[in-house]
Amino acid sequence: MSDLDIKTLTGSMDSARESAKSLTKQVEAIQKDGLDVATQLAQERLRVKREADLKKRLAIHKALAEYRNRQLISQEEYSLKVQFLRQFKNTAMGEKEWAEILKIKKELEELEKKEKAEFDGDLKNIRRAQFMCFLVAAWIAYLIVWGDK
Questions:
Q1: For the chain, how far is it from start to end, CA to CA, in angstroms?
Q2: What's the half-sphere exposure (Cβ side, CA atoms, 13 Å) at 138?
Q3: Which of 86, 101, 107, 149 is the most exposed place for a label (fewest CB within 10 A)?
Q4: Is the dihedral of CA 14, 20, 24, 25 positive or negative?
């Protein structure tokens, strides 16, 4: 072997060694990135689990508050009924009048529900109109900026 062949061989070996070092660094960087992503995913799963637990606890508190509210309403309604019936000496007449009050209550609740449904429908129509206006404005802006190019 000549000096030139040896120099070429050693140069190729040095180049191969540098390439191997560079490749090793790239593999280590990829492994580190993978570890970072796995850590981030694990933290995200833990956060989601904590949020779900918190929502469960909040839901039970909300349910308990709603239960207490309904109990309070029932007790108030019962107290009002007792007071109302005391006004009437004839309990059969009082029961008839109380049934009329409950009928009016039911009508008011239905009216409130109907008004809410109408409001929600109107709100839906308004949102649809806003969306259509947005689309028209976007189309006009597109035509102004890019025109018929």
A1: 69
A2: 6
A3: 149
A4: positive
Which segments of the chain are extended strands (E)?
none
Question: Phi then psi for 148, rounded to 5 degrees?
Answer: -100, 45
- Tell me which amino acid residue 9 is: L
Q: Give DSSP secondary structure letters for 1-32.
A: --HHHHHHHHHHHHHHHHHHHHHHHHHHHHHH
pTM given for the model: 0.47
SS3 content of the chain, % helix, strand, coil (to 5): 95, 0, 5
What are the tens digits of pLDDT across the range 61-86?
888 889 999 999 999 998 988 888 88
Which residues touch 91 (CB under 8 Å, ≥6 apart)? 85
Which pair of tokens denotes residue 139? 């189309």
